[in-house]
Amino acid sequence: MIKTLPLLLLLTICLSEDAPVARFAYGNMNLLPRQRAPFFSGIAVTPDLKFEKISLSDYQGKYVVLLFYPFDFTYVCPTELVAFSNAIDQFRALGAEVLGISTDSHFTHLAWLKTPRNQGGVGDLKIPLLADISKKISKAYGVLVEDELDELYGASLRGLFIIDKKGLVRTIQINDAPVGRSVDETLRLIQAFQYTDTHGEVCPANWKPGQRTIVPDQDKKAEYFAKSEL
């Protein structure tokens, strides 16, 4: 009887009218780094304001940063897209492209792209915006909100995925809606993965290009830790 009390208490709390409602994004919650990125294809609005079909395979041989975001014409979303767009030359110098994705239609994307930035729009954006109207892409990447009680129902969470030139997922970052993502950190992660892939060494916390790395060997790692202040 004693062992069943915690379960009964949990059920009582969950069924109570005053209990908080759990809200989840479902979809492919099993997607992890080191796995092949789910294929996608859809209609995007390009920087020259044209509708164009875009697929993951179009970026073969390049790094890709997928930026899922909740809605057009909102608050945090335009600040993120403009920030990543402004840094596109830095991404391309690393052989990377950036793609924004939401469950809005391509017509909504187009209207937003035609809206000046000082009016909450994303005019003059240098990255394409993909329309995930079917929500299949968001679901495949595990960022689709499917809880009907959630105010973001049917939208994507603020997910960032770094896919390498082999089509493998290297980074998964999913923020709750109120907080935007960092361009500098995204660039740093791409630089770090490219360094480790090329040199076979590993990057410690807060590593930046030019700083010391670690040889992943039980004996050779001692050289790094002997000179580090942890």
From TrEMBL:
Its EC number is 1.11.1.24. GO terms for cellular component: cytosol. It comes from the Eukaryota. It catalyses: a hydroperoxide + [thioredoxin]-dithiol = an alcohol + [thioredoxin]-disulfide + H2O. It holds the Pfam family 1-cysPrx_C. One of its GO terms (molecular function) is thioredoxin peroxidase activity. It is an enzyme of class 1 (oxidoreductase). Residues 1-16 form the signal peptide. Residues 31-195 form the Thioredoxin domain. InterPro entries: AhpC/TSA (IPR000866), Peroxiredoxin (IPR050217), Peroxiredoxin_C (IPR019479), Thioredoxin_domain (IPR013766). Keywords: Antioxidant, Disulfide bond, Oxidoreductase, Peroxidase, Redox-active center, Signal. GO terms for biological process: cell redox homeostasis; cellular response to stress; hydrogen peroxide catabolic process; response to oxidative stress. Belongs to the peroxiredoxin family. AhpC/Prx1 subfamily. This is thioredoxin-dependent peroxiredoxin.
